[in-house]
Amino acid sequence: VPHLLAEEPSARATEERLAAWLDACAGPLGLPDALTEMILGLMRDDAAERWDPVRAREALRGADTTRPRADQATWTARSEARVELPGGSGPEDGHDDRRTEQDDTVAGIVDHLITSMTPADDSRLWPVSTLAGEADPCTVQQGAAGVLAVLTRYWELTGDDRLPEVLSTAGHWIAAHSDLRSTRPGLHFGGLGTAWALYDAGQSLDDRGLRDHALALALAPQQATPHYDITHGSAGSGLAAVHLWQRTGDARFAELAVAAADRLTASAERDRSGVSWPIPAEAVSAEYGKRYLGFAHGAAGIACFLLAAATVSQRQEHLDLAVEVGEQLLTDAVHIGETAQWPAQAGDLPTAPYWCHGAAG
Q1: Are 291 and 237 in contact (CB under 8 A)?
Q2: Residue 196 domain flag
Q3: What share of the chain in percent tops pLDDT 70?
Q4: Both 186 and 230 in a single domain?
Q5: Angstrom distance (rounded) from CA 127 to CA 144
Q6: Which of helix, strand or coil describes residue 219?
Q7: Which of 219, 243, 225, 242 is nearest to 189 (CA)?
Q8: Which end of the chain offers a freer environment for a tag, N or C, measured as fewer CB atoms within 10 Å?
Q9: What band does 84 get if pLDDT is binned at 50, 70 and 90?
Q10: How many CB atoms lie under 10 A from the CB of residue 270?
Q11: How far is the C-alpha of 117 from the C-alpha of 271, rounded, in Å?
């Protein structure tokens, strides 16, 4: 979502300014007209005039997406025939209308990921919408590992015969671009998250080279961190360690998971709002002291890891702390009709339903 600067004098409606911004982006990015029309429809200033999902899908179906970039040509042919999804019918049997909308959406996403992969590009395997200060091309959050994990799972579920070559190409690209000397912490921005995706791809492909590289990456020296959370901190590294311990039985991953759980148990703070992990000043100074509830940066994600860690450590204090957070999250829930929502911090108004700070997480 673009953050439009304040306009003085304020002579244009926000949707008019958004249209001008999209028009400037559409040419260089090669965006289909139907896509920009859909974005404007979904972001009308008047909520009552905004498009519903049905109308948005109809617009996308009519979009001209037949103009791949030259560096994508190698992979475009691989998207021409979709695979039959579990419980659905492929287009080749003439019964595409029987496929669910969800299956069609997922298949379209996979087609896009296949055609947009650029293994000849030494800087990025897939394009990113924004770097947001992130330079590592291999991370889960904005690098290749997150996409690899999605495609690996899709292949496991569907057996799509386009995927083995794509997974192998992506996995070896990541292996060639990942640094084994030291890694950052966290699941989404750290080396252990990349190792998780790489190991699972290697396991699915029966590629020992990818598995071995993933384990070496996961066991590389990890940089110290003031962060506690899933995305950047101890909880995320610990969750990946639990996963790799479950996959391999390697006691070194159990040790990493238990060490992360011990750190989080020792650093938990309690006040009137309950148990939390306030953001340290050395982590993000502008966020200092905030006690987030959500999965990405707050108590929910940390508790999820502690619950998993308790299965490794068999220690009651890890389980008790996870349950304490869960009970507190029940207290912090804001009930609106038949829904439960959560604010970013206890006592705030809930403003988003998403994974980072909202009910989805």
Answers
A1: no
A2: yes
A3: 88
A4: no
A5: 9
A6: coil
A7: 225
A8: N
A9: low
A10: 10
A11: 48
DSSP letter, residue 222: B
Residue indicated by tokens 């997150």: 146
Res 328: pLDDT: 96
The tally of domains found in the chain comes to: 3
Tokens linked to 314: 């068999």
The reply to whether 40 and 107 lie within a common domain is no
Q: In this predicted model, what pLDDT tens digit does every residue of 216-259 receive, in sequence order?
A: 999 999 999 999 999 999 999 999 999 999 999 999 999 999 99
Sorted by sequence, the CB contacts under 8 Å of residue 244 that are 6+ apart come out as 192, 195, 196, 199, 215, 218, 250, 253
Select the more confidently predicted residue: 90 or 183: 183
Q: Which residue reads 């020992």 in tokens? A: 208
Q: Residue written as tokens 């996870």?
A: 322
* Highest mean pLDDT (candidates 11-25, 174-188, 268-282): 174-188
Regarding whether 357 and 289 lie in a shared domain, the answer is yes
Residue 145 included in any domain: yes
Is the same domain home to 116 and 230? no
In a domain, 219, yes or no: no
User: What is d(CA 79, CA 105) in angstroms, rounded to the nearest whole number?
Assistant: 14
Q: What is the mean pLDDT of residues 346-351?
A: 89
The total number of residues written for the chain in this structure: 361
Residue 9 domain-assigned?
A: yes
How many CA atoms lie within 13 Å of 18's alpha carbon, on the beta-carbon side?
Answer: 16
Written as six digits, the tokens of 339 are: 């829904």
Q: Which of 34, 67, 100 is the last residue of a domain?
A: 67
Give the model's confidence band at 64: pLDDT under 50 very low, under 70 low, under 90 confident, else very high.
Answer: low
At residue 42, does pLDDT exceed 70?
A: yes
**155 shares its domain with 254:** no
Both tokens assigned to 318: 């890890």
Mark whether 17 and 53 lie in a shared domain: yes
CA 281 to CA 357: how far, in whole Å?
20
Do residue 62 and residue 77 come from a single domain? Answer: no
Mean pLDDT value of segment 94-102: 59
Last-in-domain residue among 195, 214, 233: 214
Its domain, for residue 15, covers: 1-67
Q: What is the mean pLDDT of the chain?
A: 89
Residue 268 to residue 279: CA distance in whole angstroms: 11
334 with 359, same domain?
A: yes
